[in-house]
Design brief:
By secondary structure, the chain is an alpha/beta fold. It has one domain: Vaccinia Virus protein VP39 (Rossmann fold). Helix content is 28%, strand content 24%. It has eight helices and eleven strands. The strands form two sheets. Strands 3, 4, 5, 6, 7, 8, 9, 10 and 11 form a nine-stranded mixed β-sheet that branches. α2 links the parallel β3 and β4. α1 packs across α2 and α6 runs parallel beside α7. The longest helix is centred in the first third of the chain and has 13 residues. The chain starts with 10 loop residues before the first strand and ends in a 10-residue tail after the last helix.
């Protein structure tokens, strides 16, 4: 870890998975299971990738240290978070592998990334702009709500940056799965793989991970359900332990 990079008064410094250190805003969204699962679900590519709505940059960093991409383009509309990505990259000695774009994802073009990409990831806002109770923090509102782009905007931006056959990998909310699939297909991104994530066997799914391929024909493969916690406990299931060990979900698609 690079020395001399310290948290500001409204920030915190946390040690997270894969021996990464992460500066986060105290009043912003913090690193959670969804970001790690997104990185684990992402299939490795030999060419640079992009992260749309990168936040603190954590999903990009996880993908880099687990060799999912050799380089990441991190797009972030909030200047303060774009600055956090740059500082976090220096903190973890990843600056040479991360290019930060402080801009609206709706304005992203292949000129930004040096050409079309083979892989893009995103943890986009889950809520519509006018839904639910607003947060007192503007940073949280922008991260949680479709203020700077709807799910269709994120899909459209991914499609604009991907080459034919490129993969768009996203973590989203199950209750908006129809919106996600509609947005993907509207942008020539065909859903190809999906995982539903459940807190435990007694609960409804809390997350969905989906991978779409640009220009592909229709054919959707479902993984077996991913259960996070063992029944009646806060201990991880064998599947979750394996995901944290390997940063991969490919085994969920294997036949038992």
């Amino acid at each position: 870890m690079e020395s001399g990079i310290l948290p500001l008064s409204d920030e915190r410094l946390d040690k997270i998975n894969e021996d990464l250190s992460l500066l986060q805003l105290k009043e912003g969204l913090t690193f959670g299971t969804d970001a790690y699962l997104l990185a684990a679900f992402t299939r490795p590519q030999r060419t640079p990738g992009a992260d749309l709505g990168s936040g603190t940059g954590v999903a990009s960093f996880l993908c880099l240290v687990k060799n999912k991409f050799p380089h990441m383009h991190a797009f972030e509309v909030q200047p303060r978070f774009a600055d956090l990505i740059e500082r976090n990259a220096r903190l973890n000695r990843l600056s040479e592998k991360v290019t930060v774009h402080s801009k609206d994802i709706r304005c992203a073009t292949p000129q930004d990334t040096g050409g079309w990409l083979s892989g893009i990831i995103s943890n986009p806002p889950y809520m519509k702009a006018a839904s639910g109770f607003e947060n007192a923090s503007d940073a949280k509102n922008i991260a949680r709500r479709e203020i700077f782009g709807t799910i269709k905007d994120f899909c459209s931006s991914a499609a604009a940056l991907l080459k034919h056959g490129g993969l768009f990998t996203v973590v989203y909310q199950p209750q908006r799965l129809a919106d996600l699939f509609y947005a993907m297909r509207s942008c020539d991104l065909e859903p190809k793989r999906i995982v539903l994530v459940y807190p435990d066997t007694a609960s409804a799914p809390s997350l969905v991970l989906a991978e779409a391929k640009k220009g592909a024909s229709s054919s959707l493969v479902w993984a077996r359900p991913l259960i996070i916690y063992n029944a009646g406990t806060r201990t991880y299931t064998e599947d979750m332990d394996r995901i944290y060990e390997t940063c991969s979900m490919d085994f969920l698609f294997e036949r038992r």
